[in-house]
Design a protein that fits this description.
There is one protein chain. The protein starts with a helix and ends with a helix. It contains 18 helices and no strands. It is mainly alpha-helical. It is globular, with a radius of gyration of 23 Å. The protein has one domain. α11 runs antiparallel to α16 and α15 crosses α17. The C terminus is likely disordered. InterPro entries: Gate_dom, Spore_IM_YlbJ. Keywords: Membrane, Transmembrane, Transmembrane helix. This is Sporulation integral membrane protein YlbJ. Pfam families: Gate.
């Protein structure tokens, strides 16, 4: 009874909001059109070309059984650290490299393929939807702050807080019996991994030509869905700004921010970032009378929260599974708070080291800022790949030690 009442209230709020949005579009057609074009430009120029190759590659790797291979190889590491199967390492690695919402897409695929339980999928979803290096270094650091090295500060705070969320979420439903089980066998982990890969490819049954076609078609359809959400929330933010809603909220929250030692000018940026991260980050970067640390704290919190636009994308992507998005949303709040907090020591310890480099680059050639951002982005991607390789090696070592222990106890008996 209570659930039905909440559902009716939620539907009523949605209906009211939809009517309000429609009336606002009629009242401010020029503003709505400009905002829609702005959102479309962001999607076409940045999101589509950046994510399409990753989406296609991920689909192909799943079809070829590579994810099954990684699932076996990384089970000895992922299970004790994050309490998810080894297949989650693939989602984590690709999420680090390409950013949201690919983490939710891959998590949903693994859940549909029964490679994750419901609980494990919810844990994995909470910490694998991260921003990509290119966005933090290129779009935010260079495009908005005009300082490539600030991308280091943003990325370090972002990934440290993301891993912290992953470590905390391992305790989510820790006593649940809803977990995938690893088959006990005396075979070496590498042999088992290759067998799992061949079995995954055999179960898929699609020839490579069809696999490639399906990967392209599914990826484009997903990106069209993402583009629609970006345009919609771009329009919503513009309408809220025009009607004075953001200004009203700023007035109400200003005393609280002053009490916390934060500048009230940050409030409009956080409200915009609540809906869409690019718009909120750009507003934060443009604040001239706010200390850099507070601007970076706001940007870190916005990127970690990822915006209602991304939340809506994740909800839509996972809608055909039994994955509950409530833990994901709560984890985004935790991620945002931790990212803002981590920014303070990160700026304190790293800012003095990057400033001299930025000054030399600016004196030589401002265009090198963009080149530097690409270098840092590629370096971060390479670091993620190296970490993945090291984790694989660690998993092999752990598996070998466990196998040796089993053999030892068998001989003693």
């Amino acid at each position: 009874m209570v659930s039905n009442k909440k559902e009716k209230i939620f539907h009523l709020l949605l209906a009211t909001g939809s009517v309000f949005l429609t009336i606002s579009l009629i009242g401010y057609p020029d503003e709505a059109f400009d905002a829609a074009v702005e959102g479309l430009t962001i999607w076409w120029d940045v999101v589509f070309p950046a994510l399409l190759p990753f989406f296609i590659g991920a689909e192909i790797l799943i079809g070829l059984g590579v994810v099954h291979f990684m699932g076996v190889m990384l089970e000895p590491f992922m299970r004790p650290v994050f309490n998810v199967p080894g297949a989650g390492s693939f989602v984590m690695a690709v999420g680090l490299a390409s950013g949201f919402p690919i983490g939710s897409i891959l998590t949903s695929k693994l859940r549909r393929n029964q490679m994750l339980s419901k609980t494990e999928a919810e844990r994995l979803l909470c910490f694998t939807n991260t921003a990509d290096p290119l966005y933090m270094f290129g779009a935010v650091a260079v495009g908005m702050f005009y300082n490539a090295q600030l991308g280091i500060l943003i990325a370090v705070a972002h990934y440290l807080s993301s891993l912290s969320v992953g470590l905390l979420m391992r305790f989510y439903k820790r006593n649940s019996s809803d977990i995938t089980t690893e088959t006990k066998t005396s075979e070496h982990i590498i042999i088992r991994a290759f067998k799992a890969m061949f079995k995954g490819k055999r179960d898929d049954q699609r020839p490579f030509g069809k696999l490639l076609g399906d990967a392209i078609r599914n990826s484009v359809n997903t990106l069209l869905l993402i583009g629609g959400f970006i345009i919609l929330f771009s329009v919503i933010i513009r309408i809220l700004t025009v009607i004075g809603f953001i200004e009203l909220v700023t007035t109400i929250l200003s005393p609280i921010f002053l009490t916390l030692g934060l500048r009230p000018e940050l409030i409009p940026t956080l409200i915009s970032g609540f809906f869409e991260i690019s718009l909120g980050s750009e507003l934060a970067a443009g604040l001239s009378n706010v200390p850099l640390t507070q601007k970076l704290m706001a940007v870190s919190a916005i990127i970690a929260w990822s915006g209602l636009s991304v939340h809506a994308q994740v909800a839509s992507i996972t809608s055909d599974t039994d994955i509950n998005v409530v833990p994901f949303i709560l984890a985004r709040i935790l991620h945002g708070i931790l990212a803002a907090i981590y920014t303070i020591p990160v700026v304190h310890h790293l800012y003095d080291y990057i400033q001299p480099v930025q000054k030399v680059i600016s004196d030589v050639d401002p265009n090198l800022n963009l080149l530097t951002s690409w270098h840092w982005g590629l370096a971060l991607f390479a670091s993620a790949l190296c970490i993945l390789i090291l984790v694989i090696l660690l998993s092999i070592i752990l598996s070998t030690i466990n196998s040796s222990k089993r053999v030892f106890f068998f001989i003693r008996k």
